[in-house]
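chain below, 392 aa
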Amino acid sequence: MVCASVVMVYSASAPAALEKTDPMSYLKKQGVYALIGVGLMMAASRFDYRRLQLLAPALVLTALAGCLAVLVIGTRINGARRWIEFGPATFQPSELAKLALAVWAASYLARRRAPRTLGELWRPIGVLTMVFCGLILVEPDLGTAIAIVTMLAAILLVSGTPTRTLAGGLGIAATLGLFAVWFEPYRRARLFSFLNPWQDAQGAGFQTVQAMIGLGSGSIFGVGLGQSVQKVNYLPEAHTDMIFAIIGEELGLVGATAVIAAYCAFAYAGLKIALDCKDPFGKRLAAGLTALVCGQAAINLAAVMGLAPLTGIPLPFVSYGGSSLVVALASVGILLNIAGDAGAKSASVSDRDRGDGRARAARPRSRGGAARSRSTRDVRRVAGSRRSASRP
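prediction:
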């Protein structure tokens, strides 16, 4: 998916890159971000994920400081203040907030009983979630707030939170989200344009209409890689949030289906890791990271296809963007580490003869060894019967 991202970002960003000095600027940046992300993925896959429990408070405080700092010193792009510039690179603190909250929530719920009532859910999980989501909504970034709530709901569900309590908490979050949409004019316009984008095809519904045109133009096999028309000043943000529309136009239904199938495979693998993991912290963290990636993908795909309002959330692994790609690949590294740990545990058996109760590696026994073992048991059985017969 990352390799496909580099190709599609180069194709979708070509018209926008022509306006810059270097027409390959987006491709080079995405390639550098991909290399950094793969490096972090490899490092995280070798770093014991249990140590993240000790780092959870520091991660939360760092993410909180970043979300506060971006409101003060952040760079405003397209009316949103979400990025902090570090020379030629930019960083989005809300991406770190997702990972930090996943680690903290998994650590907290692994050591305590799952919330049974709304009062227990409110303290401290609800309070911390509201603080982060409030700061992110001020940026403004509704899509990231929805992704955080989705991720925390998955962790709570795996932890054993009753369905009624979880539904009540999600209902409260949805109500607050509707208030946030209603009192922000551009969000309210997006909501109404989603209901009927063709009513204002040149205004609020322009992006949705152009995305639908791009998807429909691709037919079954697409118009060909690099041959998209929508990316040429028709579809805004073609290489970021709306890149799936370009995939559908250039690669057709086949390419779009392959992307959706890839996320389904990721969801299956991530949930299987969570089910196989015996460690409470690892199980919750795997479920949360899987829901985080697949939840963002579902939100983005639904928005591009006109099934949900636009939220401005990128497509994980595929859309252009350094912070999103790096954090997503780091999350994959943590999942790989959890999977390796679960595999090591399942490959060991309990040793009854070992006094310290530790496990030994399970090794296949040869036929000769099995025969010797059986013959030894037969000799002991015969000897025992003789001793019992000699007793008065």
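The chain is about 70% helix and 5% strand. Residues 2-344 form one domain.
thats it, cya
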